[in-house]
Amino acid sequence: MKRVIPYKQAMLTLPLLFLFGCATADVETSTEQTETPAPETEAEAEAPAPVPEEPEPVVTTTSLYAIGDILLHDSVYNAAKRGDGYDFTAAFEPIAPILTEADIAIANQESMIGGSEIGLSSYPAFNSPYEVGDALQDAGVDLVTTANNHTLDRGVTAIENSIAHWNEIGMPYTGSFLSEADKSELRTLTENDISFAFLAYTYGTNGVVPKQPYHVNYIDLEAMTPEIEAAEQAADITVVSLHFGNEYETVPNEAQQTLVQQLSDLGVDLIIGHHPHVLQPVAWVDGAEGNRTFVAYSLGNFLSGQQGDDRNTGGIVGIDVVKTVEADETTFELANPMFYPTFTRRTSADGPFEVVPLQSAKPELFEATSQHMSQWMPELEIVQ
User: What transmembrane ranges does the database entry give (predicted)?
Assistant: First the structure.
């Protein structure tokens, strides 16, 4: 508070009064002295100015959810046949309320959606209907990753058709591209004043060689490093999708763990793993610069035609990103990790496939699945 100095008032000297008598005149003068204010006390003079109040920190939070492989075997798309097209709404309808809770939700579209005009196909060379992309979007998915061992199954035409449909419905994609210019355009999403950059890479493409290097991103640390560094500069949070590991192994191998550590050392914040078709645990990894990385080594299958409980058990992993702005400092924290176990089944012997909560479909698997996913992260919240 600003000090206030009291207003000082001075009395001017009165004019002389001349008094006249009959014979003798006596002159009287009257003078008032100006008042002098009392000096400030020592305490008043030395009192410090009050410290201005610090502004309250501004805190915002964005939740990111991710799901595993969308790999459409012929049993899945044949069950979704409706007239001249396909409808996968039933597949995601039971789980859509969970996905739509997220500020951002991402999925791994493992089979390319090249469309019916080039012929649908299943294992070992997949090509899927466009309509699964529409259903994912309707269920709340905001971005798809497309770098995996099946990206090149049906060649360039399937990639071009797939990307044309993603663009038509306004769904961001990353991992395979139409051109170098397309690849160089970093995919970012911003929610609640927090920006995310997305990258995706695969270990290989089943021996098929791409006609152009931009058709698919491969796991190559030397090539990945400048792209990750660019993402770190462009966005608050860097998310990397990795198609890696050994199929049907329930724990990550040494190569997976080494790569995750290398990416954490580069500053990657979130790593989402795919390819084993079964669940692998989530974990925290500490980076070289004191940063902390959240990794889900494998989210298993989300929707597929594979058989067996382990291959039909998947889930939704979630993490909150908390941004705090205080004075001139901005910090980010990863908080509230969660996992929502799911199970893929058919509604009837010849009915469509659907993804449902694991607790309702296979309650006998719930406890073991929960323990498996949280074994390296006891604070992981299992939601159902």
Answer: none
